[in-house]
Amino acid sequence: MIAFLVIVYVAVVLVLFKVLRIKPTAYLIASMIVVGVFMIGGVVVVWTQAAPITDKMVTSQYVVQLVPYVKGQVKTIHAQANQPLKKGDLLLEIDPAPYEYTVRQVEAQLATAKANVKQAEAAVATANAAVPNAQANLEKAKAADELAKTQEQIALNIQRADKAAISQLNVAKATQERQEADAAVQQANAGVAQAQASAQQAAAALQVTQSNVPAVEAQLDDARFNLAQCKMLAPGEGYVVNWQVQIGTMLVPAPLAAAGTFVNVSDTAVAAVFPQNFLSNVEPGNDVEMVLNPYPGRLFLGKVDYVIPASGGGQFTTSGTIPNAARIGSDGLYAVRINFTDNAVARKLSLGSGGSATIYTNKGKATHVISKVAIRMKKWLLYVMPSVDKPSS
């Protein structure tokens, strides 16, 4: 459109001065220049606000550092670098032998703990059964004691009434029987107390053994979890890059010793950078057209997800040094996250691909044709003029 306006402007100038042979004056020439500037410049201003275009963009995907949860030597490698994988596919196996030993050991401890619970339950049942027996013996002893006391009292009463009616020996015998009955009652009381104490001790021992079982079960769950972590699985749909492992490689659960990097292609997006004043009309959901450097001749469609309302130039690192005012500034750029319309196409794109993108806002739709023509020219020019990102100064 700009080229068309330039052509129209030049045609008007030629008609005025060549065909109509209007005498050029300083006032007329100045007027024509002002008209040309406003006509073309106004379109450019509306165009940049309505359909901004940029060459600073890159495809982005989430990456995951493949760090094992457990340490050990690599036993088997299943995944190959740069080969597509699905979520849950097996990447590699760490030698599980040490963790299998731990699982078996804790399983044996759990079996012992459960056996101890059963023994404690049997001891509680035996101790509880002894309490009623002791109480029954106590009741018998009390009854015998009461009988002995009654016989003693009868003997004493007879002796007081008539000393010749009963012998002193019989009275002494009745007294001795009563004393023996009293001792039996005391012994029965001690037996009841001992049975109750044994029952309490057995109940306490049962609680201790029962409390050991959940702790051992937790240890077993942990051991089984560690055993399962010997198999490293793909965290999503994607592929592995920077695959650093071989059979026999020692892996440790440390971020600085990753086995490789997993690129997750299930959420492929574009980060495009625009001047801040070009984004005043950009809204989530605006249509986007893109060309990517590795794919000349192809046009990709997308939607604006959101404008990232932050810039690293406004972030200051906490330190004891006062920020240098001369170094404070901004490059005047904001990033826009763009989602591809076709997720199936997005999954096949390479990470870090550069290219160009244009956003079509809801304003100045007549100027959208300028960006549509420009983006399609870039699409075909990639065949003969590869785009190379220039390092920032």
TrEMBL record:
Domain (Multidrug resistance protein MdtA-like barrel-sandwich hybrid) ranges: 64-250
Database matches in SUPFAM superfamilies: HlyD-like secretion proteins
Domain of life assignment: Bacteria
Keywords, in A-Z order: Coiled coil, Membrane, Transmembrane, Transmembrane helix
Coiled-coil residue windows: 103-191
Membrane-spanning segments: 27-47
Gene3D superfamilies from the UniProt entry: 2.40.30.170, 2.40.50.100, Helix hairpin bin
Coiled coil as UniProt keyword: yes
PANTHER family recorded: INNER MEMBRANE PROTEIN YIAV-RELATED (PTHR30386:SF18), MEMBRANE FUSION SUBUNIT OF EMRAB-TOLC MULTIDRUG EFFLUX PUMP (PTHR30386)
Name of this chain's protein: Multidrug resistance efflux pump
